[in-house]
């Protein structure tokens, strides 16, 4: 388990390829480019929260505002998809 998920997310956002939002996440899942889906506890999309999407999924322990802050963004993020982890350890640690 990642001891500091916020740091790992921020590193992935800064050095890798990450897309934000339910629409972008579902596009990446359907196209097969998604490596990891991170979902906030209050994500409005039920399929991402509980459905079998065929990609590794991590339920972030916080709401969308907390997830946005963890990623270093000044806006709320319900879900994000990691396409390339960059120098982050998030893929191996989860």
Summarize the topology.
Blueprint: H1 5-15, E1 17-20, H2 22-31, E2 36-39, H3 46-50, E3 57-59, H4 64-70, E4 79-84, H5 90-93
Parallel strand pairs: 2-3
Antiparallel strand pairs: 1-4, 2-4
Highlighted features:
5 helices; 60s Ribosomal Protein L30, Chain: A; 94 residues; alpha+beta; single chain
Describe it.
By secondary structure, this protein is α+β, with helices and mostly antiparallel strands. The chain has a single domain (5-87), classed as 2-Layer Sandwich (60s Ribosomal Protein L30, Chain: A). It is 39% helix and 18% strand. The protein is built from five helices and four strands, in the order αβαβαβαβα. It has helices at 5-15, 22-31, 46-50, 64-70, 90-93; strands spanning 17-20, 36-39, 57-59, 79-84. The protein has a four-stranded mixed beta sheet, with helices on both faces. Strand 2 (36-39), helix 3 and strand 3 form a beta-alpha-beta unit. The longest helix is centred in the first third of the chain and has 11 residues, at 5-15. The termini are close together.
């Amino acid at each position: 388990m990642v001891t500091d998920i916020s740091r790992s997310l921020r590193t992935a956002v800064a050095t890798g390829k990450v897309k934000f939002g339910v629409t972008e996440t579902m596009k990446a899942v359907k196209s097969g480019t998604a490596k990891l889906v991170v979902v906030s506890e209050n994500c409005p999309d039920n399929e991402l929260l509980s459905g079998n999407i065929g990609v590794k999924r991590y339920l972030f322990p916080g709401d969308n505002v907390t997830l946005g802050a963890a990623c270093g963004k000044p806006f709320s993020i319900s879900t994000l998809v990691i396409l390339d982890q960059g120098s982050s350890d998030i893929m191996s640690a989860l």
